[in-house]
What we know:
Shape: globular
Structural class: mainly alpha
Distance between the termini: 60 Å
Strand content: under 5%
Order of helices and strands: HHHHHHHHHHHHHHHHHHHHHH
Helix content: 55-70%
Radius of gyration: 21 Å
Amino acid sequence: MYAMAAKAHGSFSKLLSVNSRFLSSWDKGKNVAVKVPVQTNLASKDGLVVFSGEAASQRQASSHSIQAAASSPQLPVHQKEKIQVPDITPPYEDRGLYPLTAELNEETHNWLVGLNVHTELGPEGWKKFTAGKLPYLAGQVYLDVERKDFLWGSKYLTWITFLDDFLDRPEICSDMNKTVSVILETHKVIMWFCSEDPHLLRNLEMVFDCVPADQRDDVVNSFSESLAYARTSSRSGLLSLELQPITSALRELWIEYCDRLPYDCIVRMARYIQNILLAFVGETKSRVSEVYPTTLADYTHFRTLSVGVQGLIGLTDLFIDSRQWPQIPNDVFYGTNMHGLVDASCDVVAWTNDMYSFRKEVEMRGDHLNLIFVISQEFGCSYAEAMNRAKEMIQCRINDFETTAANLKVEAPYQNAVAEYTRIGRLWMMGSFLWHHKSQRFHEEDKYLN
């Protein structure tokens, strides 16, 4: 067994990701930005994420449009100013809420309580968390889907947000070892049914690099043993793992997901979940070292992943499965246009979140991982002006989304599935705005009660 673990450790070293080099430079005190791979084009050898040809041109073009939107003439920074979010209503119809949202809001929260996940935030933290009504965000987005699919989406959305809040707790985000422990245990779950995927293995090295050198071999060996066990034990082995409450909740969701969908869909979702896990590691590293992304381009690339919406759009595969449509093949899914579509939607949601969470993150907590702060620093403008520039950036990305959707041509068997991804992308941009505008997570009162 240990020989197998050592062999796996060697394979991890060979599959060293570019991400670990950026993270390790923090340890040397270099002022660099987090560079997690942006999932624009994964159709390269050995799962390497590269930008070339059309994919590189598209990403560069979108970066140029973002830069242009943000870089209007500079204004002086006002230290004390009342900041309001400008009107950023997307050009889509408000279709209301999923009919069972209130009922499934309670069921989702009860699910976490039943697994003792709620104890991780403490009584006051849990009360505040539930007041935000994360399932209502699912209710604004996942319309016209089956109840079981909505409930899975509601649970996953609430779980990933809970994990984000848990990792933001001072006693966790100030301790890299505690963050890495949770991230590695979560990796065990998502890699259980795709333990040999080269993309997942390569990026896992980034997490191992954050383990203290004198503990790294033991951690890698232990994880490698788990992967070796996964290859022979399948579902029963995953159920037998002793996990902390927060990862046991994901295990329950993951088994249900993997029982329903084909291997290619499982790998896609595992990669999306890994993206946000790596971003969580990057956020903790940033806060511990007090070194943050230094340019708008660096920050926006990072934020595409850290918002976690890739997986929340990727679960569209559940809806496609329920409708008995053919799933999107890999050559289309990992192509330029599909990932351009997903990433544009992610950016709109991420930047909307940064605008509404500015007061909590920047003014109250002093966090630098926020779009408004980054724009203000890069262009020497006031926070109010940074809000307006962010609005223009959002409008540019919505245009990018619609342009990409118009150019996304596929063969007849897959047109319904691609159309469903496009529909969910639009619903995420509109639904996210509506939820941010109403949720008590960002306001003194719960506007869903009005």
